[in-house]
Fold:
Amino acid sequence: MASPSISNSEANSNRPRDSKRKKRRKTGADAPTGPATNIDRSRWKTESEQQVYSSKLVDALRRRPAAASPESFPVPVRGRAVRETADQVLAVAAKGRTRWSRAILTSRLRLMNNLSRNHKKHRKVRFTGDIRSRKPAVRKTLPPLQRKVRVLGRLVPGCRKLSFPNLLEEATDYIAALEMQVRAMTALTGLLTGAAAPFDRLGSGLS
Amino acid sequence: MSSRRSRSRQQSGVSRISDDQIADLVSKLQQLIPEIRNRRSDKVSASKVLQETCNYIRNLHREVDDLSERLAELLENTDSDSAQAAIIRSLLM
Structure:
């Protein structure tokens, strides 16, 4: 379709606009200047992104029976359900461009498959290779810096076996997304608190 | 860590990451952590940046958990009245 010279120039220009169509980003081999320029992180700071997230979150929460039915579940369990919904909506908002978002979405699929099949055997199956060949239980005395890198890899979903530059890139995007999540959920809580109070007063006044 | 032979996801051209690259990435991360940004000191070690990053992510997780619990409590009152849901929707858009 395209001549080789054109496709070469597309690969070399790291414009953020093209990162949506570029599939080669995943291997990381096409980033000579550094991996951190491809993802546009500032969108997590925009007002519109936060509003879209808030409305999608409300929709998702209303659809989830675990979050909305108080009789069957205690509050901590429902809180957990809300947290998972919030994370999933956040991962969807990332549009699959980052590893952590894909990890969140696929981990839910795996969990649902396990529950439907009643199989607890595969719960810890990971993406990257055979888990038996890479037991993390080997206690090497890692230098403290590498130990911290490992902790960071555990905190960001799906990033345990990532190389250091990619891990930092994922962590940067994840932090920005988390900050937006906190802002959106705080605003939503404020909204609901404000909306609930006058209705309660009305109800008690009328009865 | 980066010298381990990994399958397909790692950078194929670079087997060892240079110290300069690490320092550069760490300084980029440094800009994001409010703890470090507000302290106005340029000489933060990489170890400190990583530590603060982990702490920051953990704090954010905890905030999301707390907010989730509060939302769970608030939502049980909201769903019983569809007028409230309409208000929320109109305020969000």
Summary: Chain B touches chain A through 57 residues (CB under 8 Å). Chain B has a mean pLDDT of 73. The helical segments of chain B are 19-30, 34-37, 46-78, 82-92.
